[in-house]
Write a structure and sequence with these properties.
Elements: E1 11-15, E2 20-26, E3 29-33, H1 41-50, E4 58-62, H2 68-71, H3 74-81, E5 84-88, H4 92-96, H5 111-117, H6 123-130, E6 143-145, E7 149-150, E8 159-162, E9 171-175, E10 180-184, E11 188-190, E12 197-200, H7 210-221, E13 227-230, H8 240-250
Parallel strand pairs: 3-4, 4-5, 5-6, 10-13
Antiparallel strand pairs: 1-2, 2-3, 7-8, 8-9, 9-10, 11-12
Helix pairs in contact: 7-8
Length: 253
């Protein structure tokens, strides 16, 4: 996926129409926010080459949560490129499982109900399967955190915000100097199961605790950054307060 004027200089959106992950250029190194799907490797390598870099130049991978469509390149970057992988301690066990794709916290509702109401939603699990999303390798001994803090060892010194709900260890990362928050799936603008666009919480078919996810919106609402970049969908460029207000109005399905 190409960069566009919607993104600050040095921030690159990668992935495809279903899944986003991001590359951030910092003076002291490259940072990846989430890791897409296994078959996104070539696209990442190509973007790095355009920047005169290689996978070994990615110093840190910051995972917003441990769902398969965010973990795809994590093990390969960790094992082959030496990239430091960061994840909230509540999701660390998922990342270390024999197949992390099968170890995530269970959602509140089964997929079957969503597929029955909207057969087109089948495109999402098919998309993940074709791109290797259900065959992942573990990451041993990732860097972990448990609370809101500045990650001083990561280029750009981003702030991590725990936002439990979508998974127990869901977080956002804030690069204050760039005026951007990476919200992962704590706040998105596209839900692949429902097909709905606009700021919202991910539906219960992919969310572990929707009440907690709804409560976590209070944290995001207080962030004073002009741009939020989600794990799914287009940027939120009107401020997080407006995006959160829309998400609250929509509710959780």
């Amino acid at each position: 996926m190409d960069a566009s004027p919607q993104y600050p200089p040095g921030v690159h959106r990668l992935g495809d129409g279903m899944v986003n992950f991001y590359l951030v250029e910092e003076p002291d190194g490259l940072v990846l926010i989430d890791a897409g799907l296994p078959k996104h490797w070539d696209a990442l390598a190509a973007r790095l080459a355009e920047l005169g870099a290689a996978p070994g130049d990615v110093r840190a991978l910051l995972l917003t949560h441990a769902h398969p469509d965010h973990l795809g390149l994590a093990a390969r970057l960790h094992d082959e490129a030496g990239t430091a992988v960061w994840v909230h301690e509540a999701d660390a066990a998922t990342l270390a499982a024999k197949n992390p794709a099968l170890a995530a916290a269970k959602p509140e509702r089964a997929l079957a109900g969503y597929l029955a109401r909207r057969p087109a939603a089948l495109a999402l699990p098919v998309h993940l399967a074709r791109r290797g999303g259900f065959r992942l390798s573990p990451v041993a001994n990732p860097h972990t955190f448990a609370e809101r803090q500045e990650l001083t060892a990561v280029p750009g010194r981003p702030e991590v915000l725990p936002l439990p709900g979508h998974t127990p260890g869901s977080v956002a990362y804030v690069f204050a100097d760039r005026g951007v928050a990476f919200t992962g799936d704590a706040l998105v603008t596209f839900d692949g199961l429902t097909g709905k666009h606009g700021p919202r919480l991910v539906c219960r078919g992919f969310t572990h605790d929707s009440a907690a996810a709804y409560a976590a919106l209070d944290v995001l609402e207080r962030l004073d950054v002009p741009l939020a970049l989600p794990g799914h969908g287009d940027p939120m460029a009107d401020g997080l307060a407006a995006a959160v207000d829309h998400a609250r109005h929509v509710g959780v399905v």
